[in-house]
């Protein structure tokens, strides 16, 4: 049985996300300890809360979580969870995981936060890009600025401000939108993504001497 762990910052209701992830017999658990959260098959960093508060909850086990992700632990970051993959944020103090070099900035737009549906434009043609929803639900005031744009797998524009709406590196994927709130397309995307991350991880383990 696949174990999927949602790292719980204590900031909101994660029921809808847990329901989406509980498919094909997967066990989904919430875990507030960053050290314990990485003892899993798939780690999910959810999209609720403020950067500074989440970074504070992450701080005691930041090194352990960062090491596990860099070692290949399949990881999905959603909205705030995507932002935590980066170094730091204008939203508040505290350090992110630094898995993807870069920062998080405030949206440059008249209407902030961005709340509602918006277009997602993939930049590649791989399997996950093919199933990525072309319209998705956003609820964000801040966006990620990777140091190397080659990690960007999709872009979105809000009032003329173009930003990375999806990033990927090794077995880690971040999305600025909320797939669990993006209708059936978002649900199928996140489930396909979990499958692919698990397959990549299994292949890598099998290839090791």
In short:
The chain is α/β, with parallel strands linked by helices and 209 residues long. Helix content is 30%, strand content 31%.
List the helices and strands and how they pair.
Layout lengths: L2 E5 L7 H7 L5 E5 L2 H4 L4 E4 L5 H8 L3 H9 L4 E4 L1 H4 L4 E2 L12 E5 L7 E6 L1 E2 L4 H5 L3 E6 L1 E5 L5 E7 L2 E9 L2 E4 L7 H25 L2
Parallel strand pairs: 1-2, 1-3, 3-4, 4-13, 5-6
Antiparallel strand pairs: 6-10, 7-9, 8-11, 11-12, 12-13
The count of helical stretches stands at: 7
Q: What structural category characterises the helix and strand content?
A: alpha/beta
> How many E-type strands?
13
- State Rg: 16 Å
CATH class: Alpha Beta
The helical percent reads: 25-40%
Which second-level CATH architecture applies?
3-Layer(aba) Sandwich
Mean pLDDT: 93
Order of helices and strands: EHEHEHHEHEEEEHEEEEEH
Low-confidence segments, given as residue ranges, are none
Distance between the termini: 25 Å
**Could you say how many structural domains there are in total?**
1
Tell me what you see in this structure:
It is a single chain. The protein has one domain: Class I glutamine amidotransferase (GATase) domain (Rossmann fold, 3-Layer(aba) Sandwich), CATH 3.40.50.880. 30% of the residues lie in helices and 31% in strands. It is built from 7 helices and 13 strands. The strands form 3 sheets. It has an 8-stranded mixed beta sheet with strand order 2-1-3-4-13-12-11-8. Strand 12 and strand 13 form a beta hairpin. The longest helix is centred in the last third of the chain and has 25 residues. It is globular, with a radius of gyration of 16 Å. The relative contact order is 0.16.
């Amino acid at each position: 049985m696949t174990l999927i762990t949602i790292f719980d910052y204590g900031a909101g209701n994660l029921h809808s996300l847990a329901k989406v992830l509980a498919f094909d017999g997967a066990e989904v658990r919430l875990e507030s300890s960053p050290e314990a959260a990485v003892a899993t098959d798939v780690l999910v960093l959810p999209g609720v809360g403020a950067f500074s508060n989440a970074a504070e909850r992450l701080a005691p086990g930041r090194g352990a979580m960062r090491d596990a992700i860099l070692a290949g632990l399949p990881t999905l970051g959603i909205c705030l969870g995507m932002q935590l993959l980066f170094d730091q944020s204008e939203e508040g103090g505290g350090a992110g995981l630094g898995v993807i070099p870069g920062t998080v900035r405030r949206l440059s737009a008249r209407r902030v936060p961005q709340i509602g549906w918006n277009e997602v434009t993939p930049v590649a043609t791989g399997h996950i890009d093919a199933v990525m929803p072309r319209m998705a639900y956003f609820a964000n005031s801040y966006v990620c600025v990777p140091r190397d744009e080659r990690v960007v797998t999709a872009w979105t524009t809000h009032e003329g401000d173009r930003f990375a709406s999806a990033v990927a590196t090794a077995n880690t994927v971040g999305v600025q939108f909320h797939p669990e709130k993006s209708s059936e397309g978002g649900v199928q995307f996140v489930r396909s993504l979990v499958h692919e991350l698990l397959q990549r991880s299994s292949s890598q383990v099998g290839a090791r001497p």
